[in-house]
Design brief:
32 helices; alpha+beta; single chain
């Protein structure tokens, strides 16, 4: 009912408003329409009929009909304002809320409509606000803002979008985020401009080639013509630069004083030639600057401006570090003064490089570190060119082209290839930076690993002893080994061993993986860094979003990990013990006749284990990423290469029938044609291995976890030598083993002996309380007997006070454990040293690094 009443009220309000406004105009409207009709009669009936019509028209009282007649013909009436005010006021009253009307593009309103907008601003209606948007690209448009302010309107300058919002927009359109910095510079983050720029990128265009609208170009030419000679000279001089040069340079070239320049600058601002601020200087909006440079200036003006700019630019570049914008300007100036290129070594080669060669050169620049004399592993540079710069196609050809033109020198042997850029002149190096910025729409960051570490990690680290960092994503085993090595300080024959604490950091700059390991002299400093590092991030300073993906302490408190976890599960499922001393044991249940079948089975086993692990354990097994393989067979030999980021198994052919050389990683990447895949280690075999492939793979994972444990510096798991604690730990391990075995059985990859995967186990521990310190358990014993259980795991555990517990017998179980033995025959019976027996059942490697330490319940924990 309320909605119906509101609708009726609105209808009456509308009718009433129109009736009140039109009643006083009815006569005028009749006269005006009559006048129009009489004119039509005159046109149709000729001169005599026209005279008659005019006589009739003159006899009608017209009051304001002539002006109304004009307004009807022009489709303009001030009555619209009255109607608007009445309706807006009534709507405000009806809704009980403020009414806001938004009008866009007011800079293009016809003069009559703009005067009506001024009228609304002069006599505002209570409860009603009008938001008029104007783009102030010229002095004329700016004058409209002034008129509105004088009429009583308030001015609000709209800021651009935040970088994070523009980045989200880019991602939503599936565009690379490295465009962000240049896009913000070209658009100021203003939504309409951002929208146009993103559309341009989606169509395959480049930010620096954003189209300038024809009407904007004409407007810019008109603006230049309106300026006086000195102001024009300033525009011709300055529009060659992306960023404002020093004021001293401007005054020198214009031969003007500081006061005279301030007057020129003020007029350029008033005329909207300068419409933004860069640093402390008024400056062109980038689209306006390009309109001046590319369209308003004639060729002689551009040549003269470029020649003048080069005379100032080159000394700046030769003196030392400069900005990317100046490097890009340098390239533009040489394009307009090509005769100057020959004056600088290797500059012609840089200026003529193709896009793909430029991407590879950029990769060498980013990976080169000063402490290594900017020498870069070539495979790494080729991979970085693909990942960071989107290089595609025949990378080895691009590499050869860089060598042939003298911009890259390479040294290699059968194992490794190293490369370093050759610049010849500082100007050539600056031009390379400029071409990368202009052509690739991405800033190149020299020694990017050091830059990331110094600017992002170092502030969160505080004081530390030693660090190592780089691009890529090494495994936690190698990162732990690096930190363990940092404990040893060598000076000649003297070795000092420190007890340091470290952090292992993995991050990502867009699609590029980064890492760092840092060693601290004290645990307090390390722990402070651990609390701050996860929050380290950067939105766009390095051309893409940076975030920390994982931070691990070293030594890791969760070590040791269960290195034999999956070996125990395979033993439960197949009856085959793959522990120490085992060789040539078969557990694979699927066909591995061909090398492809073998690799598919290994890949599937990895997937099962990845699904059964998470976090630290998955990382220690190097199962963080999906894994596939590329392989070839030739003359009875085999080559196998691991591919990270895919689960495909691909057969490839070696180039020209020869084995791959030190650039195998790039050759493999090209041969597979896969995107987003990184190439791992290449292994060669003289023929088919006689080892079981899945047994070997399971043992490799166990060794990887053992290596992680060993690298943690004396890792241990401390257990209370107390019945409930031990029973809980051992039963949890039994359940995990069963679940792992079920997953392996379901995969069909491992031989299944066909028995239940559940067990009833009896354990008797003999431990004499003769010590007052930590009990390592080597002089104590564990007796065990197990039976198959159809539906669940059951564990019976006792502490046996006998001096020698001896082997368990089925007939002794009721007396020693208080329960009867199962009806079936036992499937295992053993006696072992206590520590080794418990370690084995918990999934640790009894002969490996790291394991268990026992402690009596009433002893304090070791400091």
């Amino acid at each position: 009912m309320e909605q119906e009443g509101a609708a009726k009220r609105w209808s009456r309000t509308l009718a009433s408003a129109i009736e009140n406004l039109t009643a006083q105009r009815v006569g005028e409207l009749t006269d005006a329409i009559g006048g129009l009709v009489f004119d039509m009669i005159a046109d149709r009936l000729g001169e005599s009929g026209g005279e008659l019509a005019r006589d009739m028209r003159d006899s009608v009282s017209r009051s304001a009909s002539e002006s109304l007649d004009h307004r009807i013909k022009q489709a303009v009436s001030p009555d619209v304002l009255d109607i608007f005010r009445a309706l807006a006021s009534e709507l405000h009253t009806l809704s009980g809320r403020p009414l806001a009307l938004s009008i866009d593009a007011c800079e293009v309103l016809p003069d009559e409509d703009f005067r009506q907008l001024l009228s609304l601003a002069e006599t505002p209606t209570a409860g009603v606000s009008i938001r008029a948007a104007l783009a102030t690209a010229s002095g004329v448009e700016s004058s409209r803002v002034l008129e509105l302010k004088m009429a009583g309107a308030s001015e609000v300058e709209l800021p651009g979008l935040q970088p994070s919002a523009v980045e989200e927009w880019l991602r939503a359109k599936s565009l690379p985020v490295h465009h962000l910095g240049h896009l913000l510079r070209a658009t100021d983050g203003l939504p309409l401009y951002v929208d146009a720029a993103i559309g341009h990128l989606q169509a395959g265009g480049r930010i620096r080639e954003l189209p300038v609208r024809d009407n904007f170009v004409e407007q810019t030419k008109d603006l230049l013509r309106r300026l006086d000679a000195k102001q024009q000279q300033a525009v011709v001089l300055l529009c060659a630069f992306t960023d404002p040069p020093p004021t001293s340079y401007v005054q020198g070239e214009l031969r003007c004083t500081e006061l005279e320049w301030s007057v020129i600058e003020a007029e350029l601002i008033r005329q909207r030639a300068f419409a933004t601020t860069v640093g402390d200087h008024a400056w062109f909006h980038e689209v306006r600057r390009r309109a001046f440079w590319e369209h308003a200036l004639n060729p002689p003006q551009r040549h003269l401006s470029a020649e003048t700019a080069l005379q100032w630019l080159i000394p700046q570049l030769e003196e030392g570090p400069t900005t990317y914008e100046l490097c890009a300007d340098l390239v533009t100036m040489f394009e307009h003064v090509p005769s100057a290129i020959a004056n600088f070594q290797n500059l012609d080669q840089v200026m003529s490089l193709g896009d793909e060669e430029l991407k590879l050169l950029a990769a060498f620049i980013e990976l080169g570190e000063q402490q290594r004399q900017h020498v870069v592993e070539v495979n790494s540079a080729l991979a970085h060119a693909r990942t960071a710069f989107g290089s595609r196609g025949d990378a080895l050809t691009y590499l050869s082209n860089l060598q042939e033109c003298g911009l890259l020198t390479i040294a290699q042997d059968e194992h490794q290839a190293l490369g370093v850029p050759v610049w010849g002149s500082q100007v050539a190096r600056a031009a390379a930076f400029g071409r990368i910025v202009r052509t690739l729409n991405r800033t190149v960051i020299p020694s990017i690993a050091s830059a990331l570490f110094d600017e992002l990690f170092r502030p969160a680290l505080g004081p530390f002893a030693i660090s190592s960092y780089g691009l890529g994503s090494p495994g936690l085993v190698s990162m732990s080994e690096s930190l363990r090595e940092m404990d040893y300080e060598r000076e000649g024959d003297k070795v000092t061993i420190h007890r340091r604490y470290g952090v292992m950091i993995r991050g990502a700059l867009g699609d590029v993986a980064t890492h760092a390991v840092v060693s601290f002299d004290d645990q307090e400093g390390r722990d402070r860094a651990l609390s701050l590092l996860p929050d380290v991030k950067d939105e766009y300073s390095f051309g893409a979003r940076f975030s920390v993906e994982s931070v691990h302490p070293w030594p890791h408190p969760s070590a040791p990990l269960r290195s034999n976890r999956f070996l125990r599960a395979v033993e439960l499922l197949s009856g085959v013990d793959l522990g120490h001393g085992s060789s040539n044991k078969r557990v694979t249940a699927v066909s591995t006749e061909s090398l492809e079948d073998e690799l598919i089975a290994v890949k599937q086993l990895d997937a099962v284990m990845r699904g059964r692990t998470e976090g630290l354990e998955r990382s220690a097994m190097n199962l963080d990423r999906s894994r596939g393989y590329a392989f070839y067979e030739m003359n009875g030999s085999q080559a196998i290469c691991t591919l990270y980021g895919t689960e495909q198994v691909l057969e490839i052919a070696p180039p020209d029938g020869r084995p791959f050389g030190p650039l195998y990683a790039t050759s493999i990447a090209l041969a597979t044609g896969l995107e987003g895949v990184s190439v791992g280690r290449m292994t060669y075999r003289s023929g088919r291995s006689d080892k079981d492939p899945l047994a070997e793979r399971l043992q490799d994972h166990a060794k990887s976890v053992s290596a992680f444990n060993k690298a943690q510096r004396y890792p241990r798991k401390e257990l209370l030598l107390e019945q409930d604690t031990l029973r809980r730990e051992l039963l949890t391990a039994m359940e995990l083993r069963t679940d792992d075995a079920i997953a392996l059985r379901d995969s069909g990859l491992i031989v299944d002996k066909g028995t239940s995967l559940y067990r009833t186990t009896f354990l008797s521990i003999h431990a004499t309380r003769g010590r007052t310190d930590l009990l390592e358990g080597m002089e104590h014993s564990l007796s065990e007997m197990s039976f198959v259980n159809d539906s669940e795991n059951v564990l019976h555990l006792v502490f046996d006070a006998q001096e020698d517990g001896g082997w368990l017998q089925p007939d002794d179980l009721e007396a020693r454990f208080g329960v009867s033995a199962p009806d079936s025959e036992p499937i295992s019976s053993s006696q072992s040293v206590l520590q080794m027996g418990i370690e084995r059942r918990l999934g640790y490697d009894p002969l490996g690094s790291g394991g268990l330490w026992f402690r009596w319940p009433d002893l304090p924990e070791e400091e």
